Amino acid sequence: MQLAPGERSILSYFPSSEKAQEAARALKEAGVNEVRVDRVSRYGTTFDDNFNNPLNHAATITGVTLYSGGAGDLNDAARVLLGADPSVSGYGMENYGTAGQRAFLVTAVTGEEHLDRAVEIIKQHGGEV
Fold first, then answer.
1. Helix (H, G, I), strand (E, B) or coil at 128
2. Could you read off the pLDDT tens digit of each residue along the chain, which spans 129 residues?
3. Which among 30, 38, 31, 33 has a CA at the least distance from the CA of 11?
4. What CA–CA distance (Å, rounded) separates 55 from 34?
5. For tag attachment on the chain, is the N or C end more exposed, with fewer CB atoms within 10 Å?
6. Is the C-alpha dihedral spanning 1, 120, 47, 42 positive or negative?
């Protein structure tokens, strides 16, 4: 993606999807049209609600914890490694996991006229720019 002259991109990180979604809604209400919310995962996989829903007989109990639902059928070695992750035990190490403990990325593209207000909105919703 290439920005047009006068456009600026803002990358901001949030500790929860709820806060990220709230910030995205507020940005859109303030006139920022291009806003996207993504999950950052150190495993390089995507989250699949159908696969990872325990009520739908999820194939892995660690999927929700580790964001590994999009990994498909894992071999036994991969399952052992994911299951051995400290975040699975309930005794997660402090400051362990996603850098900065903020796994949700809000990306916004806006013109100079909305830039300062957009950054202010992000910070008001608990985001880090």
1. strand
2. 688 999 999 999 988 889 999 999 999 999 998 999 988 766 555 545 444 445 555 555 555 455 444 455 556 676 676 676 666 665 555 555 555 567 789 999 999 999 999 999 999 999 999
3. 38
4. 34
5. N
6. positive
Q: Tell me the pTM.
A: 0.61
**Which pair of structure tokens corresponds to residue 38?**
């993504």
Domains and CATH numbers, the chain: 1-40+98-129 (3.30.70.2750), 47-94 (no CATH)
Pick from 25, 34, 28: nearest CA to 110: 34
DSSP 89: S
